[in-house]
Write a structure and sequence with these properties.
Two copies of one chain form a homodimer.
Chain A lengths: L15 H22 L8 H11 L6 H11 L5 H23 L8 E2 L2 E2 L1 H4 L2 H20 L7 H15 L4 H13 L8 H26 L4 H28 L2 H4 L5 H4 L5 H5 L1 H17 L9 H12 L3
Antiparallel strand pairs in A: 1-2
Helix pairs in contact in A: 1-3, 1-4, 1-15, 2-6, 3-4, 3-9, 4-6, 4-9, 7-9, 8-9, 9-10, 10-14, 10-15, 14-15
Chain lengths: ~325, ~325
Amino acid sequence: MPDPGTLTEVANDRPGPALNAAMAETSEAVSARLSELLPEVDAPEGRVAAAMRYSALAGGKRLRPFLVVRSAALFNVSPHAALTVAAALEMIHTYSLIHDDLPAMDDDDLRRGRPTCHRQFDEATAILAGDGLLTRAFEVLADPVSHADPSVRCELVRELAEAAGAHGMVGGQMVDLMVERGIGSPEIDVAGITRMHQMKTGRLILFAGIAGPIMGKASSRMRASLHAYARDLGLAFQIADDVLDETGSAQDLGKTPGKDAAAGKSTFVTLLGLEEARSRAKLLSDQAVAHLDVFGPEADLLRAVARFVVERDR
Amino acid sequence: MPDPGTLTEVANDRPGPALNAAMAETSEAVSARLSELLPEVDAPEGRVAAAMRYSALAGGKRLRPFLVVRSAALFNVSPHAALTVAAALEMIHTYSLIHDDLPAMDDDDLRRGRPTCHRQFDEATAILAGDGLLTRAFEVLADPVSHADPSVRCELVRELAEAAGAHGMVGGQMVDLMVERGIGSPEIDVAGITRMHQMKTGRLILFAGIAGPIMGKASSRMRASLHAYARDLGLAFQIADDVLDETGSAQDLGKTPGKDAAAGKSTFVTLLGLEEARSRAKLLSDQAVAHLDVFGPEADLLRAVARFVVERDR
């Protein structure tokens, strides 16, 4: 139970099945929207379009799209526009996975149980597919289909570019690689690993939280609430990932547990210990929920997903 | 001499020195703007920022920025805004060179006489530097610094994304690789190679031609003129490149001449023969100049650059 001294309104706990159903519904809707926005191309260059579709339509939890869609719903944003922005964000997430999996980066053969893009196609095609998805995401955001107001579209482009760029996701990936390969000063402490994850994965999750208030032209108070919610949720998600890597079963995870720690990689678990990591993830999840106090029951699914990220078993 | 039956107003030929001076001035100004927009970063992730700067500030002809700046000047666009858009376009061009040079793509060690990004840093850093430049370009275009009107900024983002994406530059690069590696049907004829180049290099040059009229909210007639100008200039540029590859000296080119043809790669020269390729490039250059008939002497530098691309020796 969260500490009642720091949290209010921890009630409205939705049962797991409601969250599962809502997440499955969004996942299906965003896949359909991605399929529309990334059509097959009957021309020689169709090979790169096919690789983009292969990776973008591979499924996954679709956590970021869910956050976009649910936070947009708080402000009566058109569901079609929200799904469009969610799809653009998922294109950026997908491109980052394709490039991260490349031989020169993490060199992974499997992603979500299927061959990675460069194993299914080839390395050059995978590089281009990532580039194509990154480019397409901004094209979609800048199009009137994502919002009627061009100043809102520009803000979405700017915020997402900042989140994905050299000071956000790309910068976090750079630091992660440097630590792993001992480039520069390879020592990393809890503050360093927190900063790295806030850049590498946190910034995109943050965008997912504020896309709704941007589209809905929400008050700065409501936008700040969702900003704080997504920030804490993003970090909770990452710490929970490290905990799962240590404790999960290979079957649940779809990969070998303990791989990061065994590779000598610093994680929240190696730096904090299992119990402290668990307790921090739980605290952050509780804090994320508390940031939603400004909203009523209409934010219950966002509350439920903040609990889900630390309670999931994969 | 161009055929007087198809061309009018081929006068106003500026001497080479005026064009050279103007191109050198733009090149310096765009490098300065790129340096401002891509600052050094004093943090662990500064490594990727350094790689982005290394490649973006390596110089080069800066043909695309020159087209942006000169076409924007026709419509009294603020020079600072034009340079900002020119710098964003050059970031996209630079990212494409970084990724094209990667071992999985063209595997080049030298670019503009210096080690390529992945040789100077490492492969992972080069992939991330390209991703970072691509992302930063859209962030800059969507920022008020590129234009006061958000609908203009959105149009710039959309047009550049379309030019750079899977139906433009990335698609052209895909086709080029497929032809080279015999993926799919490797046969390519003049129509096929023309289409490939129009995607791979032509679309970005096209954007360079229309960025000015977009920023200046020019009439559709003037925009169409610059569109046609840039389309013909882009193809003339590519054919001239193939001619130079066949006839240029190693010293002028900074690379081994005849390398493409020796590698069994189809070029305009192998498909058309040297004389026919030369004559097509000249015809396209003349056509490009003719499309500027709607403008007066204020477009003389654009006329001069259309002649320059087919007359240059490197």
